[in-house]
Amino acid sequence: MTWKELIIDYFTLTRKERIGIIVVVLLITSIFFLPKAFIRNTQANAAAADTSWIAAMKKLETTDTVNNYQKTGQYNDDNNSNYYQYDRTKNKYYGEPKGELFYFDPNTISAEGWKKLGLREKTIGTILNYLNKGGKFRKPEDVKRIYGLFTNEYERIAPYIKIESTSDNKNYAENTPPGNTTPKTYAPRYVVVDLNIADTSALIALPGIGSKLAARIINFRDKLGGFYSINQVKETFGLPDSTFQKIKQYLKLENGSLKKININTATVDEMKTHPYIKYSLANPIIAYRNQHGPFAKVEDVKKIMAVTDEVYNKISPYLSLQ
Known about the structure:
By secondary structure, the protein is mostly helical. Helix content is 48%, strand content 4%.
């Protein structure tokens, strides 16, 4: 038998052998694909079970909420549970709100001012976002439209909303088509504040002044030893000139007593803490005193080269000889 005949005989399959090979291939294919199909089916069943569980929990929550409303007439709002109880049917909260009431202009009041009024941070963010995008409150009723501000929250602060008359309001009224109701403008009714005796609460009640600016004004006043001019307020760090111009008309100085520095006895450390003197003037003043003796009159500080007429006019109200 030749090699060719041996090879043909070796690779020639009988009918039974061919059937056996086919069966083996089918078994291998089944073993390869069946586990994957089984896993997919298991995952689908698990997902269905998980979804059913979530649905059941939601149904349970809904049932509890409805039962609670039927008993109390109120819903619990988790997002506002730290504030007070909310009734969705009336869009109102119940309970004792936190906050102080004072007159304010919604177009200029700061975030601290809104918070002092008792509004929630989420609502404050909505208001500031509206203003930052160019929005404007032209009448008190416009505040009521702020998303997230509840009915009785608005009713609580509405009597204290005082919107200043502006050219925008005037133009809006002039451009309103005939037959439409033009918006009313409200003259601000702020209490006039005596700068040298006012506390932070009195300053916060002014337009555009929040707790931080109020604290800075008081701190600046204390370091100076009191204000002798209303214009000194605009030197407060972080106070915009536009805000100062708004509050200027509500400021007065009936109490003009100032805390003064005795230039014949004060040390460098005592003088340098004053915002107008600091070390740059304190050191020359002490040096001149040590060289020439006590000052005979306050005007003698003008003999110091560093003290110009402008500087003297600024610091002299705070200087004394005793």
